[in-house]
Amino acid sequence: MASPSTFRFAALVAVLSILSLLAVPASCYENLEEPAAMDDSRHNYTTRRQMWAAARGGSGWSYGGATWYGSPYGAGSDGGACGYQGAVSQRPFSSMIAAGGNSLFKNGRGCGACYQIKCTGNRACSGRPVTVTITDSCPDGTCQVEAAHFDMSGTAFGAMANRGMADRLRSAGILKIQYKRVPCKYNGARIAFKVDPGSNPYYLAVLIAYQEGDGDLSAVHIMESGFHASCYEEREEPTVMDESRQNYTTRRQAWAAARGYGDWSYGGATWYGSPYGAGSDGGACGYQGAVSQRPFSSMIAAGGNSLFKNGRGCGACYQIKCTGNRACSGRPVTITITDSCPGGTCQVEAAHFDMSGTAFGAMANRGMADRLRSAGILKIQYKRVPCKYNGARIAFKVDPGSNPYYLAVLIAYQEGDGDLSSVHIMESGCKSWTPMQQSWGAVWRLNSNTGKPLRAPFSVRLTSGSGKVLVVKNAIPAGWNAGKTYQSATNY
């Protein structure tokens, strides 16, 4: 039983909470993305085991939560972490999509999976199920309140409502829903293979979409034309590596190095893309073509899971050097994490860097870059270092899918830590900070859940991975435009 002092403390917190809300205009605190109070009874929430069973398949309904983002009548972010881009608003997706929490998105392996969702606990709910496809990630905030959470497009969320009550349902906040995994049906649409713009004769990246049935993919294999010895010798099988302690870091050491600056740790490195390029010329952090331009200048890497951290590692800087190959110079090079390498060779070591061809070659002795690039998986040493961009300003690129009710921003070029642990925003006329949600990679977003437009100019408060805070006043001006980049006057 709680002591009287416990109840007095709880009462004091409640009073302080009410007073703080009274000091803020209603239009401001209505947009705070705090989890709504929810019934924790067993009939309202699935256990984690039940949730995973539902995610794998089966006919039974499970319980979870749902919110919506983007335009009330749009397709969420008009893109998303699965890479479908503008296709989410077109047939066969037709804006009936959702960003999945971690248990549904599965580091991208949940992309393309289909679910039926229905709500019954609100008067505006029709009780009729709607079918959505996972096209985006919702890794933070309210999306982690329940074991399974769908951040649905405004179109899909409103489709659960009774006729004429879609706007009322969209104002309900976090909604209790039932969901189940279902086969994807696209009315005979053909599977699409979209070749990534960064592909070249040495590197092929392909977006795969519209698979009926399961919808998601666990593995993809490719066969080149004229299969013979020279083909299978190029398979990306892990090479035999010395597992002695001096050559490989423990997972604890890897995480320690990823959290802060310090001594050299051991890991592995490969390269991807063009031999003289910037990897994929884009990547899972969302920096797009900027990776090949200053200040990144193609000196980038895709990080394994312990470095990418579901996008929270985007922007972090590391020095990397190699000494175990005759082509290695032993001189460290500095790279920035701009992409994710979630499987295969990138999980062989506790810390793995899949570097651009430019960055990988920069570790070589003069004239030996091509020889080093032919070495396969390379043993390297690495350490976290402060990012230095020679006075570059922090960039706030407004996502093309943003609108008066939804703001998504790519944030880049933070000096110092480079990464971000949280982002808050303050609307014009407000006196309090509202937390933004990490959408994917280095993209952060804010919804207006009140049905009223967000009010610019917006000030932004950045918190780095180590807790350093920087406030950028009026970072995004009144009259902002979707797709445009705005620069700060300050940096860390």
TrEMBL record:
InterPro entries: Expan_Lol_pI, Expansin/allergen_DPBB_dom, Expansin_CBD, Expansin_CBD_sf, LolPI, RlpA-like_DPBB, RlpA-like_sf. Residues 202-271, 405-488 form the Expansin-like CBD domain. Residues 1-28 form the signal peptide. Keywords: Glycoprotein, Secreted, Signal. It holds the Pfam family DPBB_1. GO terms for cellular component: extracellular region. It is found in: Secreted. It comes from the Eukaryota. The keyword Secreted applies. SUPFAM superfamilies: Barwin-like endoglucanases, PHL pollen allergen. Belongs to the expansin family. Expansin B subfamily. This is Uncharacterized protein. It comes from Eleusine coracana subsp. coracana.
